[in-house]
User: Fold Helix-turn-helix domain-containing protein from Dyella marensis.
Amino acid sequence: MQHKLLYESIPAHLQEYCEELTARIERYAPGEGTHDTPWGSLTVFRADSTSTPTCTLYEPSFGIALRGAKQIVLGQEALVFEPGRYLLTSVDLPVLAQVSRAQPDEPCLCLKIRYDLQRVRELLPEVRAPRASAVSSRGIALSTVTGDLLDPVLRLVRLLETPQDLPVLGPLLERELLYRLLTGEQGARLAQIATAGSQGHQITRAIQWLREHYHRPLRIDELAAQVNMSTSSLHHHFRAVTAVSPLQYQKQLRLQEARRLLLAERCDVATAAHRVGYESPSQFSREYSRHFGAPPLRDVVRLRVEANVA
Assistant:
């Protein structure tokens, strides 16, 4: 009965896939948080209770929800990530995420496989991806999981038990997964982002530039020139993919990095502000408070307490 409730939204012929995948993945998530596995691009997330919304950065990746649920908000769009669905993120995106369904005996459990867009590009000439004419350009989307996707994922997870086979067979299974994604429901979206010269690819280049130079003053005309777009076209297509403007995107990158500096490197507020590009510590503190819901020091103390409790 328990499995029936967990996977009631999944077709019967796929339930065995999900049950085995869940049982195997649970071994790599003994407690709450994100856990690495023997395959570097594969991580597992577990939460035993619901959470408040948290600002975070999603990277290009494929994810499957196995138990519980998350709500992911990008701009004005809210996505419910739950069993029976897969999440495809095609660019680095700042989102608001929270665990919306979880309890100790039925934790929220998800797996994520990061991928390199360059590998997608290399595969494109061999793939007949769906046409992109009516596809949203958003950099994140949910779709119904299929057996074609679950099969290579399950075989990759099985390989974790035989690490000696991973270096040879792991890349082949990742390639198969990318092929299935490109030929599946979200294939046009992924192909549009990866195709050299496309508007999606130009926005990917703009995002990469911002990630590498987030601490520098942003001049939109220079960024547009970097990616061979007009300033108006850059604004329009950047917002279509990320739901924010380039300036807002840069600000979120700065604040995410500052939070990391405060937590991991134990910087003081003024140092963290300066290192991410703020000239005024007071302006930094105001924007940090608006973004994360608390001033820097109070936010960091809360995060450290939560980490110790977990």
